Amino acid sequence: MAESYASVVIAAPARRVWQWFGDFGGLARWHPGIAELEMEDGACPREVGAVRRLWLGDGSRVRERLVALDELGHSHTYEMLEGPFPIRSYRATVRVRPVTATGESFAEWWARYDADAEREAELDRTFAEGVFATGLAELARRHAEI
């Protein structure tokens, strides 16, 4: 099983960061790689079982289902149902923790998935750098402006 991971310290309280990062239906509002997002069947984005459709910048489509939500712990987990990537059993988690010494936040995003061994390094770059780190950097930038 392969794993991709990215993290960042954000100059804002965890509660505020979670309002953005924890919104399963709000990714397109701040992630530069997501062109459009819609919740299937009018689903509430903060209910386990909700499915979202994402259109990426290159026009490809991804479907993901929320499988766990911990509002108090500021984390949620989702699985990819459909997408353009040569993977199986993709499950990702986003989490925000307070940095108590400074009042900042530590945000992290990771995924575990099955892939052919010869594709793992490429997929790790795609997810860790292209999706997770890119999104976290934008989240940090936006909170620096607030």
Automatic annotation (TrEMBL):
This is SRPBCC family protein. Gene3D superfamilies: 3.30.530.20. Transmembrane segments: none annotated. InterPro entries: Polyketide_cyclase/dehydratase, START-like_dom_sf. It comes from Actinopolyspora mortivallis. Pfam families: Polyketide_cyc2 (PF10604). PANTHER family: BLL4707 PROTEIN (PTHR39332), SRPBCC FAMILY PROTEIN (PTHR39332:SF7).
